[in-house]
Amino acid sequence: MKISLNWLKKYVDVRVSDEDLIRLIGSRLVEVEGVIDETHKYDNIYIVRVESAERIPETHLTLCSINAGSAPVQVVCGAPNVHEGMLAVWIAPGAIVPASVHEDAPFVIGKRKMQGYESCGMLAGADELDFGDDHSGIVEIDPEMARPGDLLADVFELKDLILEIENKSLTHRPDTFGVIGLAREVAGVLGEKSRETSQNSFGLAQCSRNLLAISLEAPSICERYSAVVLMKHGEMKRKYLTWVDTILAKSGMKPISPVVDATNYLMLLTGQPLHAFDYDKFVAVGGKETPEIKVRLAKAGEKLVLLDDREIELTTNDIVICSGEVPVALAGAMGGKSTEIDENTRNVILESATFSLYNLRKTQMSHGIFSEAITRFTKGQPAYQTLAVAESCAEMLADGFEVVGVADEYPKPAPEIIVNVTRNEINGLLGTDYEKDLIVRTLENVGFEVNVKAGGAGNEMFEILVPKWRTDIHIKEDIIEEVGRLLGYDNIVPAAPLHATAEKNRMFELKHEIRDMMAKFGANEVLTYSFVSEKLLTKVGQDIKDSYKIVNSISPELQYVRQSLVPNLLEKAYMNQKLPVDKFAIYEMNKVYRKSWGMNEEKVPVERMQMGMVIAERKNTGTAYYKAKKYVAKLLAEKNLVVDFVPLKTKTAESVMFEPKRAAEIVGKDGEYYGVVGEFKNSVRNEFKLAEYLAGFELDLDLALEKGSNKKTIFVGKKEKRDLTVTTNDNYVKVVDKIKKVLDESGLAAEITPLGIYQAEGKEEKNISVHLEFENFNDEIMEKLENL
Amino acid sequence: MQELERLKNELKKINAEAAGIRDLPAEKRGDFGREINAKRQAILAQITEAEKAALDVDVQPIDVTAWCEVNEALPDFYGVEMGARHPLMSELDRVVEIYQLMGFDVKESRQLDNEYFMFDSLNFAKEHPARDGYDTFRTEEGLIPPAHTSTMQHRVLKEYRHRLDDGEAIAVVVPGRVFRNEDVDATHEHTFYQCEGVYVSRDCNMGQMLGILQEFFEKYYEQKLNIRTQPGYFPFTEPSLEFMIEKPKALGGKKGDFLEMLGCGMIHPNVLKMAGINPDEYHGFAWGGGIDRLVMLKYGLSDVRYFESGNLNFLREFN
After folding, report:
1. Which of residues 13-32 of B touch A (CB under 8 A)?
2. Which residues of A touch B100 (CB under 8 A)?
3. Are A224 and A356 in contact (CB under 8 A)?
4. Cβ-based contacts of B181 with chain A (< 8 Å)
5. pLDDT > 80? residue B15
6. pLDDT digit string (tens) for A68-121?
7. CB atoms B83 and A521 under 8 Å
8. pLDDT tens digits, one per residue of A729-745
9. What is the reported pLDDT for A233?
10. Angle of helix A476-487 versus helix A423-430 axis, rounded to 10
């Protein structure tokens, strides 16, 4: 939304600087996104009288002598409508063409020769002045408004600041979508009352009412429908540039025709959108002698051709305006082709109504209509002013049209809303100490009627009548917000914070510990998206059907909710190897979802917190599996989790990408599944174009948290340390089991750590070496062990 | 391997068959061509699969119970000079720590939720246009990857309301990942982190909320800060406001250079009511703001996209 500050000031007395005003609007009403400074946009542009105009033979040009208040100036003009005696707009040499001021290279007017004649500056058209895109001729000024030599900017109040406010910032305040409503609020934040702006009533009551019949299917789709019938009695020829034209242009709209301009101007002024139908076409479509307006929901299969020539198929949610039974407009969104106003229009029906914002919101989405009108309707325009705005429109058009009929259908007028709140409730919630009078004045400034009732101990009760344009006020907290906001939240003194004891979040703490540990061991934490592509799921062999699918994803790359973390890490591993980073261990801790896990008791999907890691090196330095295992084993050991690494057998979303011959399942002592560690299938590794040295793991952190502890068993006494080598055909864990068995039988305990595995060339058996640290020791034990 | 041979022979046969199209009358060629082509595509897909499988056939098994490969050294961890915490995560830890020191419990946010928690329980009217402002993603089932951590507010209120019966306050912060369907550029990400705060007691007020927020930001940026507010609109708070801080001088801020840090307000009575808390007896306030922006400001980062890039040239700077 664009708001001219000059226009706004017509409805509120501003006694502070523009800078302060904009700051106050920002801190007490709504964020001002931007300010367009038009103070100098129309510098050196004058109103002039064309004293003589002579055609230059064999060209379309006219040689003019103009009076800009002093000596005559010669200008060559190409417009067909230039004529002697008219007041025109002259862009003097050195001035910038207003339409180009925001371009990278603004166009500066100079002196130049045209067909051998010197032209000093130019006579401007509406498009050059940035008042729309009319290029048919030059602008003509009403001689009653100005004299030659006047600055255009002075005559039309163009030295202006335009405020830019995002529509969605005011979603809850339909009443501020018109300048009058906005001015009322601005007055409120300045601590003043806005200027009275009574809607003119000019005796429409005596007009015949039977020219129109209105029927509404239900108040729930159309709360109120007002209409005025106008009959043409004279030409409303667009001749002079008007102040309304400049206001439309500043607000981001374009002048089109007198009737359309009047409806647009009033919408910008009051927030109430209007629509004009060609009366005679309307009657003809309905097939009756007089118009019968019917507002109803569309029926399935009905079609309508809109003003933009699109034929749309209506849905049963769309509200339509019908002539008799025939739909002629999509209510609140766009008029229909069959009743469009054109240059031959004699009689007009002006519609001023309100419609269900919920229906209109769906209409907006399903037909893709984003007009100024529907933007206002979908905020929920109040119904109180429909008739008054239609009457104002008739008044604006009085030069060319007279009112011949009025109708107003408002079956269930909105009830008055009264809210009760006490002074203590207001100050209690805000943390303030506002006096009674200040509160009352603040509310009355923006239209509330306040009846003060005495309460105990200075705690007055306010009985507050809500103004009819405030559809958003229902409860006492709404009133408290008004008081706090209008008086400025910045005036509330921040209080001393409250202290209590917090409980720790164990998962947060676990992740914090892992972060510390992993940083120490040279690993890098990464974050990757929670959404992945079908391609990625397929590459690693995960079942697409187990992923929740996003129906409105940004791109195919982000279409499915991920089932595990390692696939994203493989993608990031490729990117990093390309950088190039020679070696790295990247990991992520985040939530994952699978459809097969079902819903929890809250009826939302079961989620798990997992950790994934990928280790990759550009040169092959050995067997990557063991490095990945070292990282995951260290993490589990820190949490006192005792696990076995057993050959892969369970097929899960995390295991499918691992090579069964070079990967292990991580299994707890009660058989619980912690995850998987290993190298990846060659086919998977090829898909990611990764170098051969590659391994990773995926771990269930929820389980690790549930089963783990920080318990430490520390032996501080003397330790006996020995190395042991066993020659064997067994695998490592069998050897360790045998050692433990021997120790057990001897009633001894030792910590066993691996040293290495050696196999001589051509030999079947291996030498497995381990290091033993005994807490208690006897000499026979080593003998027993060496005989294993 | 044999399977691959067989499939390749099959493909040859189909190609030979395809040559026969020349002998067919013109009107039959279309159907024949389509049929042959479908067969060929099916075989080609099988060949791709078989070739992939062949890659995995000759892999040598290892002893997964051991700690190193035969005749190889035991592996080492990488050196501490390579490692780093993710800056967003270590800062989130710091954020949470400050709130904990101020007495707030911590509950992490979900990453897939439903319409009820995301909107209904927060006093958004059904079909209300305010829902559009959140640019939510949706799954086929109508689930929502949450667009704000307020999706946890209803749960927090219910889970902790027993505190009120014990005469204590509800004081909880909710960090978590959130999602918005918007185009990504240097200052916008579709995936980012927020931290929500919820406080409910018998007599809390807006001044206390502003006090807590000011204290938080001063602790986080380790200096005194000027604060400012402006009116906002959220269906779940009433009054609603936007909270701003003056950009710290040490971070290149000039006087009057205010930055929007979060949205906040007094919890709407309907939200309390829906969670089984009597709004006539208790008041609350809540706030929520982005973590990414907080961290970008602290480190002077210019591009939010670095956070989810996984780029080690960026991440290792936080060693």
Report:
1. none
2. 502, 504
3. no
4. 552-554
5. yes
6. 988 899 999 999 999 999 999 999 999 999 999 888 889 999 888 888 899 999
7. yes
8. 999 999 999 999 999 99
9. 86
10. 60
First and final CA of chain A: distance in angstroms?
86
Of A518, A525, A683, the CB nearest to B52: A683
Domain boundaries, chain B: 2-57, 87-318
CATH superfamily for A45-155 is Nucleic acid-binding proteins (2.40.50.140)
State the best of B49, B65, B94, B124 to mutate against chain A, taking most chain A CBs within 10 Å.
B65
State whether B83 and A429 contact (CB < 8 Å).
no
Q: What is the pLDDT of residue A171?
A: 84
Q: Do B240 and A630 touch (CB under 8 A)?
A: no
User: Residue ranges of chain A with pLDDT lower than 50?
Assistant: 198-203, 205-206
Give A-chain residues touching B81 at CB under 8 angstroms: 522
- Tell if the CB–CB gap between A498 and B240 is shorter than 8 Å: no
For chain B, say whether A538 makes contact (Cβ under 8 Å).
Answer: no
Q: Which residues contact A221 (CB under 8 A, 6 or more apart)?
A: A295, A296, A297, A319, A355, A356, A359
Residue B257 has pLDDT above 70, yes or no: yes
Its CATH architecture, for the domain A204-409, is 3-Layer(bba) Sandwich (3.50)
Question: 3.40.50.2300, 3.40.50.1820, 3.30.930.10, 3.40.50.300: which CATH number matches A506-707?
Answer: 3.30.930.10
- The per-residue pLDDT for range B207-229, each reduced to its tens digit, is 999 999 999 999 999 999 999 99
Supply the mean pLDDT for chain A: 92
> pLDDT digits over A490-504, tens only?
889 988 766 678 888
Predicted local confidence at residue A204, as pLDDT: 52
Q: Do domains A2-38+161-189 and A418-490 have the same CATH topology?
A: yes
**A239 and A143 in contact (C-beta within 8 Å)?**
no
Identify the residue among A361, A498, A610 best suited for mutation to test binding to B, counting B beta carbons within 10 A and taking the highest. Answer: A498
List chain A domain ranges. 2-38+161-189, 45-155, 204-409, 418-490, 506-707, 720-786
- Asked if A162 and A2 touch (Cβ cutoff 8 Å), the reply is yes
Whether domain A418-490 has CATH 3.40.50.300 = no
User: What's the pLDDT score for residue A22?
Assistant: 93
Q: Contact B137/A585, CB-based, under 8 Å? A: no
Q: Which of A169, A505, A755 lies nearest to residue B107, judging by beta carbons?
A: A505
Task: Name the CATH topology of A2-38+161-189.
Answer: Phenylalanyl-tRNA Synthetase; Chain B, domain 1 (3.30.56)
Residues B68-94 pLDDT 10s: 999 999 999 999 999 999 999 999 999
Taking contacts as CB-CB distances below 8 angstroms, the residues of chain A near B55 are 681-683, 686
If you compute the radius of gyration of chain A from its CA atoms, what whole number of angstroms results? 40
Burial class of residue A93, CB neighbours in 10 A (0-12, 13-18, 19+): middle
Strands B105-106 and B170-179: parallel
DSSP state of A125: B
Question: Is the minimum CB–CB distance between B314 and chain A shorter than 8 Å?
Answer: no
Question: Is the domain covering B87-318 a CATH 3.30.930.10 domain?
Answer: yes
Tokens of A624: 């990557």
Q: Which residues of A touch B145 (CB under 8 A)?
A: 530-531, 550, 561
Secondary structure E strands in chain B: 105-106, 170-179, 191-201, 227-231, 237-246, 258-267, 283-290
Residue B183: closest C-alpha in chain A: A554
Residues of A in contact with B69 (CB under 8 A): 622-623, 625-626, 757
Q: Tell me the pLDDT band of B7, cut-offs 50, 70 and 90.
A: confident
Q: What is the pLDDT of residue B35?
A: 86
Q: What are the tokens at B276?
A: 């089984």
Chain B residue with CA closest to A768: the answer is B70
pLDDT of residue A202: 42
A715 touches chain B (CB under 8 A): no
pLDDT at A196: 63
Domain A720-786 is classified in which CATH homologous superfamily? Ferrodoxin-fold anticodon-binding domain (3.30.70.380)
For A254, other C-beta atoms within 10 Å of its C-beta total: 16
